[in-house]
Amino acid sequence: MKRDIEQLVTQLTLTEKATLCTGANAWQTVAVERLGIPAITVSDGPHGVRRVTEMMSNESHPATCFPTASALAASWDVELLQQLGHALAEECLALDVDILLGPGNNMKRSPLCGRNFEYFSEDPFLSGELAASYIQAVQSLGVGTSLKHFAANNQEFQRFVIDAQIDERALREIYLAGFERAVKQAQPWTVMCAYNRVNGDYCSEHARLLNSILKEEWGFEGFVVSDWGAVHDRVAALAGGLDLEMPGPRPERVQRVIKAAQAGELDEQVLDEAVKRLLHVIFQAVETPKDAQGFDVAAHHQLARKIAGESLVLLKNEGGLLPLQAGQKLALIGSAAREAHFQGGGSSHIHPTRVDSPYDEIAALAGEVELLFAPGYQAEPGRDQALIDEAVSCAQEAEVALLYIALPSYIESEGYDRQNMRLTAQQEALIQAVAAVQPQTVVILNNGSAIEMLEWIDLVPAVLEAWMMGQAGGGAIADVLFGRVNPSGKLAETFPLRLADTPAYLNFPGENGVVRYGEGLFIGYRYYDARQQEVLFPFGHGLSYTTFAYSQLRVSAEKFNAPDGLQISVDVTNTGDVAGKEIVQLYVHDQESRLVRPEKELKGFAKVTLAPGETQTVTLELDTRAFAYYDPAYQQWITESGAFDILIGRSSADICLQATVQLESTQQLPCILTRESTIHEWLADPRGEQLLQPLLQQVIAQAGTEFMRFAGDMPLEPVMAWYSKNLPDTPEQIITQLLAELAKRQ
Ligand code: BGC
Questions:
Q1: Which residues form ligand 1's pocket by a CB distance below 6 Å?
Q2: Fewer C-beta within 10 Å: the chain N or C terminus?
């Protein structure tokens, strides 16, 4: 339905415009029948469609529950995310949903964030690429997305009010970078603002984030929707760039907007702009017919199994205990094997079309061999020694014990953060007790974020991280255990040794309404690298039933100009006996830079499928941004000339090939010297150096070179004041002249 939106806006009354900018109910926008403006429907998101049966109800229609984001990210597979996106869009079309509220793209600052299961990674490049792929796929079928939660919603503690205090560089390079990538690559129809505040302002009223950065700088064309209940002052929010408030109706707020516009407190053009953005998406949405034909439930369940299979991470596999051998007598221990824990609590909770029981799926693949079972732990808090004793006897009767451990939802969910990174006391005691009698023990984990394993990791030979693996995850786990699927997931988040090692440990979750991001840029592997700190399992780690060799690293140019970018190729060979998939990771290390930088940063990745003995060449492209950092002093991304190492790794801690390239930057930077700039800063700027040198020579003649070492970090004024004998003017005047001369040379 193509409409002339500019024209339509002129026909709307002030009241109609104000009304349009708040929801009609929890999930729909307001219709204006007089002008043929339809309502559209939004639904959660992100890993399934939570389409409510009635607008005022919490019940939702059955839909496929796919693996949650932390699992999806471990696949490192943008094509797989596309398949997921298409399936989600098909379900939206069948369930009459115009916009799916996802993906979540917040950084995993701390493993404790209760909602980490809904987020991809601790790395903005990986997160941004996956989010872009998801968005492109959903939207390619005419269904919108909502990239959320913009920005820095990195904890649940006081999430509606907490003020995240983040320095500009960390904001740009870590907390905004994934959003920037997804917005620029995929243009989500909507972006959802976060509940929290960033540097003092609520995200729902954050003119700098929403207007200046998102809309103007990045060119976001869709509309900004509030997180549900995130708006405090509707008028300030409109002025700040928040186009649609959800949920509605909020008649008193609509009245406030009308009054503010009438009184001239709110420029009506701001309202017009919001309405235009909304109408653009509304008419785009209704172009795609929503048929009521349903979707292919069985095919989507199969897809959910395939995706889960790609997302599982084999963390440890000593002595090749996995895959299981035919005919082994197995003990499956853990109540969650029968009551699968496959998704997280809160707004993303999907009513699944069906659920694979891990027990049934493992039993099916175990074939003739008897599968012993013991619950081992209960769903509620508390210790129960009898359950452990029963599990121990069960494990003793088997050749291999499969310890199926799900972190309960009372520990991890939307709405609250975890208190620690451990399993429950019952679960840890269970693992210790079973491992003590059964050396062949495999731990299978269901959880949404990194956990601490020091109490038991050395006692067990094998650990499979199965995340919140979606409704078909039980089947996927069986596939991997029995080698029908060769595990190929790798961690998109570091598993540290202990909570006290984590980057935000001293500043999480904040107090008195404020959380300081004191670790700055250094989250995830950036932190552990910088501290040279040992971790349990590094970012990018994951095992396979085969082995891979890397060779022939090639770069398209050893010297290159920033705008041209670079191609990197590497050969990967499957050196084992079974087919498998390898995730190739490319990190960039800057040998020298003006500002401090992480040791290395992920800037490229690819997943390749290889038959035994097969070799493939993987080619990755690096653009200018791959080498840049954000300099708050210049308020822009900087590409500095110099040497950069290109590191190819199996994980962030296992770099197997390396090359050095020389970047020749063509970037022209403005001069940012001021009265307060130090002598070193003047000398670091070519224009400043040229102007200052003659004067400095005079000062050095009086003060001696030794003094300059002392004075290098002082501003010009005091130094010149002390050694002013032969200077032509007063220091004040000289500096004024220098700055005027610099301004001319800009
Ligand atoms: C969540 C959002 C969700 C919205 C609608 C909020 O509480 O933070 O992620 O999309 O509710 O359910």
A1: 44-45, 101, 148, 227-228, 347
A2: C
